[in-house]
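Why do we care about 3D structure at all? Because function follows from shape, and shape follows, mostly, from sequence. That is the central idea of this module. The next example makes it concrete: a single protein chain, its amino acid sequence, and then its structure expressed as tokens.
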Amino acid sequence: EKSKDGGKWVRKSDEQLFVKADVAKVDEELGLVFGWGIICKVGGEPYFDSQHDHIPEETMLRVTADFMEKSRMSGDMHARDADGQPVPDGGVVFSFPLTAEVAKAMGIATGKTGWMVAVRPSPDVLAKYKSGEYTGFSIGGSRLVDEDVG
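And the structure:
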């Protein structure tokens, strides 16, 4: 949340939460699930998820760098233990923040920007992706209080 004096953002709490991400491909041989951890823009326009949240590219870059350095946790579809804590299941193996600027610099033409990831879940959870039971995955992190930028 933003500090009372309007300064920098601070972590709302130490509680971990999982954000649902869309699966694009399952590679059973490598045991990887590929998808978008965060979508920032589609067709050059801000993308709003089912909770009406939009994550700007600059914010995505900051939070994913911090996540990859400090956590890299994925989970079994937001599963929680008896104490309400997230149940980790594997981790993020690959991470690529694709902003419009990065795409242009790399010569990539894309209609979508955001954070591309690959996770390596347990064999039991991987089987649920292969069967189509799971169509998304969860990434562990801490959420900050929303800021209305509109």
